[in-house]
Amino acid sequence: MAKYDVSQLTPTIDAIIRVSDMNVLSMRRLRLVLSAIVNTNLSGEKDELHKLVLERIQLMQQQEKKQKSKVDRNSEKFKRELDKENLIMAQRLNPGWGKKGLVGHVKKRAKPDANKNRGAKKLYKLHPILAEFMNKDVSDRFEITKEVWRYIKDKNLQNPANRREIIADSKLAKVFKERFDMFFIAKKMGDYLIPLEEDGERVSDEDEQEEAIDEDDDDDEDQDQEEEEEEEEDENFGEHIAEQIEADMKNPTGEAIVKSEFK
């Protein structure tokens, strides 16, 4: 089957970026929305879409920068804005971080035991490479992500031409690589995390096997419920984005310019 020419989606991608909250727009959701719009499964074009989206974001940032007045990089205002942006990135890139800000009603899952070690605050034993960077042996995903972004900001490692690209120094390159984008942080982090029991001890192979047998049914139920929630969220999100894109791309007479793409 011939691959889909993702360059045809450039106007639609631009429209999605304009009407979307970048704090909740992930590459997966963007791909699902585009697949629904063109009625084609775009799973085989993940890499091409990823590259194109980053290029469009970078171009739009450059255009916005030209339109806005220059900000003094030494001013307190700039520092506050940079801190806020980096915190948002840390929250957004951290897997398991709450799905806040999604448009539409989403059914809420029953709250788990408050003492249970799970989610963004779940503790992990760190691989020696990450432990050396963090200067600690145990931490959670959110704290790690926040520390990585603090380090990037303090060392001024963001590419000035594309602040979503990181140019690592020797210390950060040991953990990730010399150049990477913001989506790579959460993806690579999982390679360095070793699960712990709730009391902070590492789970042994024997305990893992016993727990896998005892909790298999519960895990299946949890996974089914999570998948149902994600499907509902994606459906709500996709419907909302499609509506906003169509409204955004209408001409003054009310006729959709690219109506055929959405119907």
How would you sum up the major sheet? 3 strands, antiparallel
Radius of gyration: 21 Å
* Discrete helix count: 11
Helix/strand order, N-terminal first: HHHHEHEHEEHEHEHHH
Number of domains: 2
Strand count: 6
What strand order characterises the main sheet?
A: 2-1-6
Shape call: globular
Distance between the termini: 24 Å
* Percent range for β-strand residues: 5-15%
Helical content band: 40-55%
Structure at a glance:
With 263 residues, this protein is mainly α.
If you had to describe this structure to a student in words, what would you say it looks like?
The chain folds into two domains: 1-68 and 231-263, no CATH class; 119-203, Orthogonal Bundle (MDM2). The protein has a three-stranded antiparallel beta sheet with strand order 2-1-6. A three-stranded antiparallel beta sheet has the order 3-4-5. Helix 1 crosses helix 10 and helix 2 (27-38) crosses helix 10 (216-248). The radius of gyration is 21 Å and the shape is globular. Strand 3 and strand 4 (162-167) form a beta hairpin. It has helices at 10-19, 27-38, 46-67, 76-93, 128-134, 141-154, 170-175, 182-189, 205-214, 216-248, 259-262, and strands at 123-126, 138-140, 158-159, 162-167, 179-181, 193-195. The model is unreliable at 97-106 and 251-263 (pLDDT under 50). It starts with 9 loop residues before the first helix and ends with a helix. With 263 residues, it is mostly helical. The protein contains eleven helices and six strands.
